[in-house]
Amino acid sequence: MAFDFIDRAAPAAAFVTACVLAPACGDSPQVSGEGPSMDLDAPTHSLPGGASFEALSARGTFTVVLEPEGGGVPLNEPFAMRVHVIDTATGEPLEGADAVTLDARMPIHGHGMLRDVELVESEGDGYRAEGLLLHMVGPWEFHVDVQRGPLLERAQVEYELTL
Amino acid sequence: MHPRTALLAALPLLCGAQDVPTERTSHIGRYVGTISGLAAPRAVTFDREGRLWVAEGGDAATSARVRAFGLTFGEDGALVSSAPLEARGEGALLSPAGLAVDTPGNVYVTDEARHLVLRLSADGAVEELARAGSATGAVIQPAGLDIGVLDGADALVVSDAGNGRVQVMGLGDGAWRALPRGPLVRPVDAGIMADGSIVTADAARQRLDHFGPSGAHLRAFSDWGSFPSLVSTPLGLDAIGSLVLVADTENHRVQAFDPAKELPLAYRFGVHAILPGEGEGKLHYPRDLAARHDGDLIAVPEPLDDRVQLFARAPGAEPVEDTLRASIGGPSAHFGPQASASGQFLVTCSPESHKVQLHDVRFDDPVKIADLFGYGTRLGMLRGPSGLWLDDGGETLLVTDAGNRRLTRVRLEVKPDEPLAQMPDVAVYEDALDFSRIDLSALPGVNLAPGTAPPIIPGAVCRLTTPTGPVIVVADRGSGALLAVADDLQPIGVLTAGDDWRFGAVTGLAPLPATEGQERGVAAAVDGAAGPVALAYLPGAQPAADEPAWRLLRGEATDADGLGGRRSGGIVFQGDSLLVTLPLACRVGRLRLRAAEDPAGEAGRRELVRAPGFGAEGLGRAEFLDPRGLAVLGDGRLVVIDHGNHRGQIFGAEGNFLAGFGSRFYTAQLRR
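The joint structure predicted for all components is written out below.
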């Protein structure tokens, strides 16, 4: 599994090697170490506009690209996020998903957001989530879960929210 | 029991409210006595004569049965005596979970392990009313019962927990019908209200649901938590007039609700019994609740304490709170049902918190370094942890969840070479297999017509290493099958022993130690009359079309410790010893695996021989209460999950006590 915070213009090598500060986002990004299932050859995806988070799913089935609208993640204010789920094998939007969910949690504190968010599918433009709210500074994780048939798979992004 | 609108004669006069129903001018909650010395009482009901019927799970000396007690009270209302009057169902029950009595005196009892609804007549006849299945009139893990009038006729209401529904059987015509499912996931009890509506308790969703007389879902109320009006695994309920009283099991209390009100909580009572054996009105784990037909007395069984406590009516709409012990707080560690170890790490789970604990066991005592999971439905959350398997030196964790019907795989970023430290963010919840989307009848080896298979309810889990890769084995509590799942979480099929793919109520799994020339197999702890232990052998990783993928190891159906027909628990290999917890006997049974001569010349034959086990009921060292999971640490130490005593105990290879961990009140005895 890969966790990363990238400048979408960054080359693929940067995707796995280091923490790259996204210029459009004022928060300090933090990159975890690579997991054992990380696919170093996984494609990255160039999307127009500001910063994004990108992560490979646990089995490498799909890559998620998270785009906070407005370019950054605010502290204790609602924000929206675009969610793209890309089939790793084809580079195209993943087909056949029965459900896609987004959540954010703080495992060190043992809690998540104080609200649930729903993903609304946008025709040809992935999904959009409204009403996300990170109410504390500190290490957060974004979880994107995709259910296809009986299988449920997660892509996870670690993110440090600072003042 | 019938719904009742009975009013207490005296208390309305005392309260000066004769036109107000008694349940509004008084409350249940005055402790009046305890019936002790029972054998794990799990369900209760009153008959029309006021006799108390108790379904007991059994112990080392007695098997499960149903007994009637005559109760005598003094002038002050306190219990004076409780005399056993008759017993029924001995030898017919394994794990009773629900109880009701009709007007003629027939006793109805559910067996959740054998998936049965039985009618026990006074003449000793035992009649099967429903058996395992998912069609109307069949049940999976049936639990609470009630008898009342529905649509103008006497009816038996059955909580068909495993099938996620409530069914009704007409007592006159014996016809079954299933009520609309609504949002139910795991209804474990149902009660008929005075107006013919039905209230159910859902142990997976942690909600109470109100269905109208027509079966329409009216509302769900309450939720998971410890604050007033919230519940934690409510396992029993009964109606008194317009109120429903709920055994709020893991909150150690009883709550009374009026389902018709927007804010339904009427009152609550019960103080948590914290000290071992504490009672006299304090509640430990109330497993069920039954109200007498006059609505003035309730019985609350507590199987871990071998007792039924009785509470009567008292003046006032609600009890006066004991301010000294009113707060419940978070649940204390009450480990179970499984445990697993790999490398220097141990995982346990606490059903009340729906969390898994990761311990570092590099020193003598386990040190908890992380809490994993939590209550909920998302990936990484649980609604009823039922099995654990730790592997790869602590880096891989498999968790089964009966409430969400899911197998979750977790990657643990453990650091065994670094100094001991807390690791709250150690877990990466990677993926899961959702058994609710799998049709068992579609799997190879299952000879069921499409669409007729019972739901898969995952229990014990382990992972085997085979020549072609790892295979995950999951015990299905719904069908009794052992499911084989590939390491990419794709179901392979079911394990079969000859023509039989139903192993029974498997409660524990462990890989069979490999020997030269033998591939890895699996050992299973199984509830059943033939004995609590069976072993299966895996000749290959993939089922072949022309031969059974699995067959029983010879000599494996073994009656460990001579306790066949009782509930089994966890299972593990410690060297060449196969250990099995025997919850009702409070013992750890031991069998030794050894090479056996085979007249047919078959190579690699092994057999099991009985060896001395250890343990007894109690609080001291090597004493247990309802022991369950077992695990062997990397250095050979044995961990026994002493479920009923809120602790674990650690033993050396010879069964010598080394250490204990868990609740301080319960581990204090081990330090002396």
